[in-house]
Specification:
eleven-stranded mixed beta sheet, globular, disordered C terminus, 11 strands, 16 helices, Amidase signature (AS) enzymes, single chain, alpha/beta, 37% helix, 505 residues
């Protein structure tokens, strides 16, 4: 059964459980066995929840035995980024500040997957409070890229991406504030989607940047991601999240539609950006040819203010992070430094000891940017830039259906290879503008790079609330690449565990 789990997609697992080919309990035990066998090397998980998993699997098996209807994710093992609340687990955000915090309620995104029949396998590692692009800022431990354990899995949702790439689970959830789903998906060779802002409820997800955050799924295939998206939007708007919107679509309905006659935007100057490696550039150019060979029309478009997106993001993001993390003071909950004489001293010393260097850096930057005399110079201008970036995308989408660009400028880098924070921030150079505009984006693996023999990916981005169309293009790209060949029942996982795919020519 463990071998089947490595090979089966989420939809195949659900279908097999319903058909009686195997039970949800067997699938759960196989997933637990895979985690036990592989996570010592990958370290994708912060907490494994066997009791919750086996209880959920038994409930699915009992429902099927009773002739009851079960959800579309019946028996599918799922992992959750550790900034998402789930009763029965801790929610630590990979920080010392919340190391012992037990979830008192369950996030909407988590409960919707559980309502769809998913089996909760546990919580995955992340950069502390989602501040990072490599999962190196976690207070607890590093997560290692399953393709090469000397390299990072990306971040901040590195544990979620690695758990799928290692074959431990077929689906996981992450959060994306500036690329934290799409960049680790690219580095780990899996599919990762950031839906349109507001498409998925953020209730119960610890906030980083409230105007930027969005929850989305990782999967081995585009079909797995579409299946998870159906569960995430089921039930419509969440009244507990004021940004939540109804998304009354079936993301599987038009998944295999042809793209013939539809238009794909290409931005030539993005392909000449400093830091983009030749192998990623070649792979993305090949992806354009793949879509063109299926009848799509390539159209050059312009995003004149995209170069301002990183500067705008690193003003807006830290300001919102400073506001959101002000509540963690060791008074009501969180790490509490002993031996403090006053409440002010306790708060100050608890925050100093509870937060790691990157969390402190971003909060200090946010505090400065929101200070009197500075706010108008930076924060106000960053919001003006945001308006221009959003308008640029809207203008481009009047001419094209989606835009194709890299997801990451390079394949996975080695631990410690990037020590300068500014250089690390450039890891998200192709992803940040989509969060600023609020549009949807998806990272699709293209195979292995010719130089590094590590996964390389392309990113497709689309207009707001056109995520179903985005998945159609992603599936077309998956069909036309070596990475997508034979993926109907499951994608290959990292080489140490199953077998390596062919290099990308």
């Amino acid at each position: 059964m463990a071998t089947e789990l490595d090979q089966l997609s989420a939809s195949a697992i659900a279908a097999g459980v319903v058909a009686g080919d195997f039970t949800a309990t067997e699938v759960a035990r196989a997933s637990l066995a895979a985690i036990e066998a592989r996570d010592g090397e990958v370290a994708a998980f912060l907490q494994v929840s066997p009791e919750l998993a086996l209880a959920a699997a038994k409930a699915t098996d009992d429902a099927i035995a009773a002739g009851e209807k079960v959800g579309p994710l019946a028996g599918v093992p799922v992992a959750f980024k550790d900034n998402m609340h789930l009763v029965g687990t801790r929610t630590t955000c990979a920080s010392r500040m919340l190391a012992d915090y037990d979830s008192t309620y369950t996030a909407t995104c988590v409960s919707r997957l559980l309502d769809a029949g998913a089996t909760p396998m546990g919580k995955t590692n992340m950069d502390e409070f989602a501040f990072g692009s490599s999962t190196e800022t976690s207070h607890f431990h590093r997560t290692y890229n399953p393709w090469d354990t000397e390299r990072v899995p990306g971040g901040s949702s590195g544990g979620s991406a690695a758990s799928v790439a290692a074959g431990e689970v077929p689906v996981s959830l992450g959060s994306d504030t500036g690329g934290s789903i799409r960049q680790p998906a690219a580095l780990c060779g899996v599919v990762g989607m950031k839906p349109t802002y507001g498409a998925v409820s953020r209730y119960g997800v610890v906030a980083f940047g409230s105007s930027l955050d969005q929850v989305g799924p990782f999967g081995r295939t585009v079909g797995d991601v579409a299946l998870a998206m159906n569960a995430l939007v089921a039930g419509g708007r969440d009244p507990r999240d004021c940004t939540s919107q109804d998304c009354p679509v079936d993301f599987l309905e038009h998944l295999d539609d042809p793209v013939e006659g539809r238009r794909v935007g290409i931005i030539p100057e993005l392909m000449e950006a400093k830091g983009l490696t030749d192998e990623v550039k070649s792979a993305v150019e090949g992806a354009a040819r793949t879509l063109e060979s299926q009848g799509a029309e390539l159209v050059e478009v312009d995003l004149p203010h995209m170069g301002d997106s990183i500067a705008a993001y690193y003003v807006i993001g830290p300001c919102e992070a400073f506001s959101n993390l002000a509540r963690f003071d060791g008074v009501r909950y969180g790490y509490q430094e002993p031996g403090c004489a006053t409440l002010a001293e306790q708060s100050s010393r608890s925050r100093a000891a509870g937060f790691g260097p990157e969390a402190k850096r971003r909060q200090m930057l946010g505090a400065y940017l929101l200070s009197s005399g500075v706010y108008e110079k930076y924060y106000y201008r960053a919001q003006q830039a945001r308006t221009l970036i959003t308008q640029d995308y809207a203008a481009a989408y009047e001419r094209v259906d989606v835009i194709l660009m890299p997801a990451s400028p390079r394949s996975a880098f080695k631990f410690g290879e990037i020590s300068d924070p500014t250089e690390m921030y450039l890891s998200d150079m192709y992803t940040i503008s989509i969060n600023i505009a609020g549009n949807g984006g998806i990272s699709v693996p293209l195979g292995l790079g010719a130089d590094t023999h590590l996964p390389v990916s392309a990113q497709l981005v689309g207009p707001a609330f056109k995520d179903r169309s985005l998945l159609t293009f992603a599936r077309a790209l998956e069909r036309g690449t070596d990475a997508g060949a034979g993926m109907g029942d499951g994608a290959p996982v990292a080489p140490d565990f199953v077998g390596r795919g062919g290099d990308l020519a």
